[in-house]
Amino acid sequence: MSAQERLESGIWDAMLNRPAHCIEESLGFYRTIDHRIPEDDIREHFFAETSIQEASVVGAKTILVLCGDMHADFLKSILEASKHQVEVTHDLIPWKYWQ
Fold it and tell me: Where are the domains of the chain?
């Protein structure tokens, strides 16, 4: 979703001001944990609609969608509700850094 599309959908400010908190990890390093916000639903529906539309344009039967781990399971639910078969892998992200 482009910056202009975020502005037009009314989620620009929320994306810029996403709540988060920090946790301390080993050796005194800190990591930011992002919190989900209602505007994530808007983006995920946009991802799903765009993916379905673009796959239809080229006649694709299978597509690969790369997205942040915070969005993967929610995007899966949206696509499955639209009667699409979805497989999600979290193999590259062993730890969840969002809530």
Answer: 3-81
